[in-house]
Amino acid sequence: MAQLILNHLSKDFGTGRAAVSDVSLTVREGGFLALLGPSGCGKTTVLRMIAGFEQPTDGSIVLGERTLADAGGALPPEKRNMAMVFQSYALWPHMTVAQNVGYPLKVRGVTGATWQARVKDALSVVRLEEFADRRPADLSGGQRQRVALARCLVTSPDVVLLDEPLANLDRHLKAAMEETFREFHARSGATMIYVTHDQGEAMALATDIAVMSEGRLMQVASPQEIYARPEGRVVGGLVGQGAILDLALPDRGPRLLSWPVIEAAFRQTSGPSRPVLVRPEHVVADPEGVMLQVTSCVFEGERFALSLRTAGGQNLRAYSTHALDCGVLQPFVIRQGWLL
Amino acid sequence: MPRSSANRSSQPVWLLPFVIIAVCLLSGLPLARLLYAGLRFSIEGKATGLFSEPSTWFAIRNTLVTATGGMLIAVLLGATFAFVVTLTDIRAKGFFSFAFVLPMMIPPQVTALAWVQMSGPASPLLKTLGIAPPLGSPQPLYSLGGIALLLGVQHAPLVFLALKAGLAALPRDGVEAARLAGASPMRVFRDIIFPLAVPGLIAGAAIAFVSGVGNFGIPAILGIPASIFVLPTLIYSRLSSFGAGTFAEMSQLSMVIAVIAGLGLVVQQRALRGRDYRIIGLSGQNAAFSLGLWRGVAETGFSVILFFVLVAPVAALVASSLVPAYGVPLNFQTMSLHAYSEILFRQSVTLTAFANSLFLSGTTACGLLLFTVFTAYLLTRRPGKLADIITGLIEIPYALPGIVLAVAFILLFAAPLPLVNVSIYGTIWIILIAYFSSFFAVSLKPVASAFLQLDPSLEEAARLSGAGFFCRMRDILVPLIAPAAGASVILVFLIACSELTVSALLWSAGTQTLGVAIFNLDDSGSSDLASALSVLVVVMVVILMLLLELLAKHLPKGVLPWRN
To answer: Cα separation of B6 and B260, whole Å?
Structure first.
């Protein structure tokens, strides 16, 4: 196993707008990278290029010492020793669960007792041993997902690719499957690449998150880093809850803003404005603060989510332990903000 | 660094050349040969006598009259059935649909024979019932009107199916919105449903017209005895009286058929222009208009029509096959299975015909599958201009009237094959190749729709598992499309087994098919044997159709021509 390097990777389907342009990133060996972005941002195309289903128009993909693909040619998917969990699971309906899981072994010429043992092993990891002789049609969505995962596990692939694997599952199942993925990653040690548009999934699972937008790579960092210090409006709006305020701030100074700086900016009405990300947990009711109008108050179970409006007409979000009436004006302090 | 050349697609390098060569040999070559011959003979001015003969112009007029008349009858019958079956609460919809489309699958010469046995002074059925017209009175079906009527009955299912497909996509919520807006059921039909159904109606009418122009079996049985010739039967009679200018005449007459059929399609295009209504909204269950008291009337009416279109002709056919000689009434004294034992055990002509047709249709059905699986795979995985051209080339020989295709193959193989210097003209092989060409489209459609329906990730998962092309075909793709492949084989077998038009021109002694045998037996006056053979063909058609019905729930939508 080795690290996976994407080198100035580009893909143009000839539609006039590149689907992926100039994406460079390195996934360390055994890493778990989440490719995060809204639909149509090119993340699935990147994944399909890594798998070998699409050939890059420019740039290259290198796994360890091997060049898998560049503009001149590509190693076909069947020779890449990768595995993938598809959004539709892609289980073969005419085969039993065991045959589905064991197919990559069969193609590699493994038969008999070895085949039996390895299929059983893989199924035990996803706790489906007793379903070995069922057909995929007889399984629930979560079980199908686990069969697809077992099929990835069985050949010890260098890289495991996951294409929105949780998109079709309900919320309870999602949580359970996230746990299975985490276990699977710890156990197999494979490099994993996980495509999702759900930032919650990405933060919960990945060791690294790559945020994409309109075919470009915006930022790559650990989940904590990307939450606390996002780069630019797109990443700031995409990762975590929060609101972006346009505040008149001095050109120099630290990017992490404290309340006195923000308060000063609130009083400043002229000058060029700059985008500041404010997380809802940093907006707290405080008599020392500025007056904000409550525009909505929604009960979310453990707390109330507030939408607030500044005197300048900008929107903010906050949490509250008790209900507030719509329309009331109340003082709030913004403990910190992040200059995007 | 291991590397395969720019192989991002899943197809092996040889697949595209393989498909292109197959399609060129089966479709491109005969079409090009026909076009070349027709143009050359026209330019060189050979066979100019053809268009100064009045018989040519009579045939053209007869073709236009029967095809147009047949189209009108087909539209009337087909549209009535389609509107009532899809839009109202009439009972036994499945039965009515199946029974109504059955005539489409019955070979035209059998339909014609059955109707002849049902009417006229010598009809065993009418004689048995004691209502036969006096001997010597003319057979009313041996006329232009008779030909048009039967063409209408034969092709009404085409209109029915074309219209039903359009009506099935009709948005239910659109109809409901119109009702809520205050429109009565009649208004809804006039203002909403009918305008949306017009494209299907035009398409169905065009298919019925083109099929009528190319039909050979019906005018052959009904027209030739009365010396009424249409273009396909004129070509046939020219070939029978083989002379020096025959090839030139046949290719020019074929061109005339192709031009008339083409004009029909042009008229359709013009009529359809500006009528591309994209259906938006839910199209699911159709709005059921309650017929109230009229329901019983409609059901009775349909039953009466089906009786005359389906039950009576088949009964007449059976009756004719059970009497010892033409004109004898059927009763317990005269009834015998003599005709059946004759055709099944004694007559070498019919036995050869059975053997030939089974061999031809079996080989065509199974052999074509080999081409169609690869072609369908290529067409789904590599969509684009080239795929459209390939699909078009495959469809032309099927859309072309059979008689025109047969002429193309005669021209192509009249001379010995180059290099090997062997002539296949007059052997069974020329029929086999013509069948391959003619039924390629029939064989392709079920397999292609199965491939289209397949989630591409199933194959991608197999690729990532390490499976190469043949491995994937064997383990993943072929098992998944197996039901459609089975349907393709049965369908081709069903149509090829009783086919007449292509083999009528291409057969010679010893290579006659079932269709040809029925036609020849009737022509030589052995109507009891012809009827018995026809009964067996009808039984076979119904059994194969029922077999396909059983497969239906495993098949992609639209595979079975009588279902959609």
So the answer is: 47
Q: How far is CA B392 from CA B285, B388, B556, in A?
A: 33, 6, 21
Evaluate whether residue A196 is within a structural domain.
yes
CB-based contact (8 Å) between A93 and chain B? yes
Q: Distance (Å, rounded) from C-alpha B50 to C-alpha B254?
A: 12
CATH topology for B44-296 is MetI-like fold (1.10.3720)
Shortest CA gap A115–chain B (Å): 15
Find, among A51, A214, A27, A67, the residue nearest to A59 by Cα. A67
Query: What residues of chain B lie within 8 A of the CB of A190, using their CB?
Result: none
Residues of B with CB under 8 A from a CB of A: 1-8, 455, 457-458, 460-468, 471, 475-476, 479-480
Contact B41, B121 (CB under 8 A): no
Q: Does A42 touch chain B (CB under 8 A)?
A: no
Domain CATH for A328: 2.40.50.140
Please indicate, yes or no, whether residues A68 and A211 belong to a single structural domain of this protein. yes
- Mean pLDDT, consecutive 10-residue stretches, chain B (564 aa), reads 46 88 90 84 67 86 95 94 85 84 87 86 76 77 93 92 79 74 80 83 89 91 91 88 75 86 83 65 60 85 90 87 75 79 85 93 94 93 87 86 89 82 87 93 90 90 91 91 89 88 89 91 85 90 87 77 66
Look-up of token digits 């009365």: B226
- Domain extents in chain B: 44-296
Does residue A150 sit in the same domain as residue A258?
Answer: no
Task: Determine whether the interchain pair A84/B460 forms a contact, defined as Cβ–Cβ distance below 8 Å.
Answer: yes
